[in-house]
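QA checklist item 7 of 12: single-chain prediction sanity check.
[x] sequence parsed
[x] length recorded as 241
[x] structure emitted
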Amino acid sequence: MKINILTLFPEMLSPLKQSMLGRAVDNGILELDVTDIRDYTEDKHNRVDDTPYGGGAGMVMQIQPILDAYEAKGYGGEFIYMSPRGEMLSGELAKELSEKEEITILCGHYEGVDQRALDKLNAREVSIGDYVLTCGEIPAMVLVDTLARFVEGVLPKEESVLEESVYSGLLEYPHYTRPAEYDGMAVPEVLLSGDHGAVDLWRWEQSLALTKEKRPDLFDKYLESDLKLSKKEKAILDKYR
């Protein structure tokens, strides 16, 4: 999968070269191409923004550098603009985008982007939440990290994105590691028992309890799904209905 990013601050995207995503790029699973929009401005002072028509505070990113950068690099695929007015990022949207061969992401700055650039490139606007950030690079990294986990080969073979918190329908259970006791705080005995069936059942019950407490909306949705449960699981679930 090829992911292109148009930005005014390419150095802000350096985390995408680290950890899991960095390994995916090194192994050829993901192709990441970051372009500095400022390199394509025709302004002699290297400006990429100007005051908005109609007045108002702030500056607006100009159409010319954006379109020239896009065309010069030969970018394609679905064009995405990170915007607080866009559709909300979800697991379903991330999975949909992960199945595309190529996407191009535009990171906004200042008061926004000249609407003609978005219209010309048929931009799909995506938001990561009902709040405003100082730049589009952070939302872009969130989007890339989220969708990359659905791309085959990015996660280790023993891991599955569909088993993770939220995607499974429940919040994730608590995790513990060595030492077994620290400052009077002990790891739950069942995790030390070696009984894998009991461990799985305990973890599932913990997920149930946490989901009902912290995300009752997810809990109700989980109850409405097509659950295939054992007798022991049904007995546990009845306690939380």
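[x] summary fact logged: The first helix runs from residue 19 to 26.
[ ] second reviewer sign-off
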